[in-house]
Amino acid sequence: MLRSRLAALSSAALLLLPVASRAAGNSPAPAKPPAATPAAPAANPGAPAPAPAANAGTPPAAPAPAEGQAAATKAEEPPPPPEKVDPKLFDEALSKYFDGNPRAAAGPLFAWLSATPKTDDNYAWGQYFLARSLIDLGLTHAGAVYLARIARERTNPNVLPRALEALKDLTDRPHDEVMIDEQVFAALDLGFLEQEAGAYVHYQQGLVDLRVGNERWANTHFAKLEEGSAEASRAKFALLVTRLKTVKEPSEELITDFLSLSKDEKLTREARNEAALAVARLRYERKEFTGALEAYALVQLPELDPGRATLYLEEAWTRYKLGELRASLGILTTLDAPSFRDEFLPEKYLLRALIFRDLCHYLPAKRAAKELTRRFADSLDAIAERDDLAQDLRLRRAAEAHGSTRRASRYKELLELESERLGRYAGSFGDRLQSHLTKLYALSLGEAERVYQARLTEAVRQEADTLLRAAEQVRLMEYEVGLKLYERVKKGSKVVLPAEEVLLKPEQVAFQFEGEYWNDELKSYRVRIESRCIEETP
Amino acid sequence: MRYALLLLLLAPGLALAQAEALENPGTTSAVQDRLYRMNHELSLGLGVLPADAFYKGYYAGVSYTYHFTDHFAWQVGRGAYSYNVKTGLRRQLERDFGVAPTASAFEDEVEWMVGSDIMFSPFYGKTAILNSKVIHFEAFLLGGATIFKLNRDGGFRPGANVGLGLRVFKSDTVSFRLDVANNVVFAGASRIINIPTIQLATALNFGATE
């Protein structure tokens, strides 16, 4: 149990790093047309006009490959020669964009980019507005590809901060982590950036250093963050999480640091909750169960939010350890709510069986134990038969529910959705842009699928391990309960008097549970059940 | 023989109940801290005296209530002043049939009233609005005494009232209250009249503990 908890803590902590980084913006910024931007190309009268068609001999803007991905191996047909375009096309396309018609702007911008050399002063602006148009149309991945190209090519210093800002906003949703996080924010020298974007870059680069185990380098980046800023708080959180991996016995100081972060308003609520959970888990490991419960109480949820199943299960274990069997059983009732019905929580059945056993309700204990093998019969069979575990619905759902597999799954879903969406614009984009984007999405989807499958294979194996461990303990429990069930009661034994239990204080109100779950009650279920244990007196 | 038959009839039911208790032991309740607790309550309300055929009274009222517990409270004082509007019937009687405005039937108009009540709130609950919000409410019974000033010389008349009410909580400090009561007023030596009141009020709560 201890080991599994520690493992869960570490993995949750590791998984949190990218999560915390994605939560950088307090709210995802809508794609806003930058008011100053239209002036930018125009305000540069010295800049040469977009290259005439005669210059089209320069290498055209090659169809953007799926950046950072290795799937484009098959031979492709050579792209058709770029069409000659009127230099005015760029201005017309921009005009359409600022008139609120990105659909009409995208095709001309792509045509202009295809026929213009990369050395053109407006080339980066063209890429930027094509990206913004695509993002406005819901094709965020395609937009991100162009923004990432701007960041890597860095041909126009006026465009670069805007492109990075737009990219930063895209990290709030499922995105290509390799292309954006690793190849842009973590890899490029972007120290010249202004305060906010620069802080984000330092934070990202520090995170990458932490992930590869180089805390000293990470500290170099984190030291550049302004003291008291949101990024500084997140960086501190990331550092603490990383230290958790290395220490065997977490110190009180580490717990105190997490505790202070759990109350740091500069962090997102999700990050604060993770810090509170870290405190609770560390205290649990140190057997400070009351302190763990206090930390669980620090977790704040939006109104009527059902919360997270793992949080309830951990609290149930804590209360069980404290001897609060009825409260623990109440929390297990919570875990039967429809919101958590699909959660993969084999330990839930084990804990319920343990509680019933401790209260000497042996039949329910046996039934609770059997429930696990009954409910997960298909998955257990698949494991026994050495089937492809990724095909098992329960295991796959469990694997997809958290961590990097979840991110890969969500990214794949996003690509599928946007690929479908792309079909809607076939008439507006023109053949060249349409076929280019179709190819782009096909390649990205192929790579996303590959990454997803690789992560899924590993994740389902871990979930299968969890299930097998729980099933093994449940079998032991069944055996133990079976023995108890037919144990002879010695002469002179008497029923243990139940401890005085105050179920309802004057300031409390009770709503009898009759199978209808209310989200505001999920934390409040209590079970009134008598112990049937007997005391064997000599 | 009769007892044996009775036992035979009851046995399966008892066995079934016992089996159920063995398989699903315990009862589950959602135990929550009461979200809203009243203490010193000041209400400001608007009401109507709807029953009299010769006038309708529209009144503004104020009251102070002290809540001893979540269930019992004393509405220490309440007072209301009524603005009365003649009904069409009265105007017709005066215009077409020459009924004097001082006729005894017209002398039951309430000018103002003061009173005090005991409140008992046995119901506390919550309800979901479109599955996206939960509101809490309580229902209460009240009973007390009222002094009415009627529109006549020496028009002070005592009355007893019973009613019921509903309170919807908005926050710790603000709630909305609907009171419906009937006042039995001793209008004369051998005359009793009923004066129903309906009032909607905003209640401000002070000094509530969490």
How would you portray this structure in words?
- The complex is a heterodimer of chains A (538) and B (210).
- Chain A is built from 23 helices and four strands.
- Chain A has a domain at 344-487.
- Chain A is mainly α and 538 residues long.
- Chain A is elongated, with a radius of gyration of 29 Å.
- With 210 residues, chain B is mainly β.
- Chain B has one domain (38-206): Porin.
- An eight-stranded antiparallel barrel of chain B has the order 2-3-4-5-6-7-8-9.
- The longest helix of chain B has 22 residues, at 2-23.
- The model of chain B has no long low-confidence stretch (mean pLDDT 88).
- Chain A binds chain B through residues 303-304, 326, 329-330, 333, 356, 359, 361, 363-364, 367, 503-504, 506-513, 518, 520-521, 524-530, and chain B through 22-34, 37, 69-70, 124, 126, 128, 132-134, 209.
- Strand 3 (525-528) of chain A pairs antiparallel with strand 1 of chain B.
Helix percent of chain A reads 55-70%
Number of strands of chain A: 4
The assembly state of the depicted protein chains is heterodimer
Helical proportion of chain B, percent range: 10-25%
Order of helices and strands of chain B: HEEEEHEEEEE
Give the C-level CATH assignment of chain B. Answer: Mainly Beta
Structural class of chain B: mainly beta
- What is the total domain count of chain B? 1
Count interface residues per chain for the largest interface: A-B, 32 and 23 residues
Strand content of chain B: over 45%
For the largest beta sheet of chain A, what order do the strands appear in spatially? 1-4
The largest sheet of chain B, given as strand count, sense and whether it forms a barrel, is: 8 strands, antiparallel, barrel
Rg over C-alpha atoms of chain B, rounded to the nearest angstrom: 25 Å
Describe the largest sheet of chain A: 2 strands, antiparallel
Note the overall shape of chain B. elongated
Task: Describe how the helices and strands are arranged.
The complex is a heterodimer of chains A (538) and B (210).
Chain A: H1 2-22, H2 39-42, H3 88-98, H4 102-115, H5 123-136, H6 140-153, H7 160-170, H8 177-185, H9 195-211, H10 215-222, H11 230-246, H12 252-262, H13 269-285, H14 289-298, H15 309-321, H16 325-334, H17 346-358, H18 362-375, H19 377-384, H20 393-400, H21 403-424, H22 426-429, H23 431-485, E1 494-495, E2 508-512, E3 525-528, E4 534-535
Antiparallel strand pairs in A: 1-4
Chain B: H1 2-23, E1 27-33, E2 40-49, E3 55-67, E4 72-86, H2 88-96, E5 110-129, E6 133-150, E7 156-169, E8 174-186, E9 192-206
Antiparallel strand pairs in B: 2-3, 2-9, 3-4, 4-5, 5-6, 6-7, 7-8, 8-9
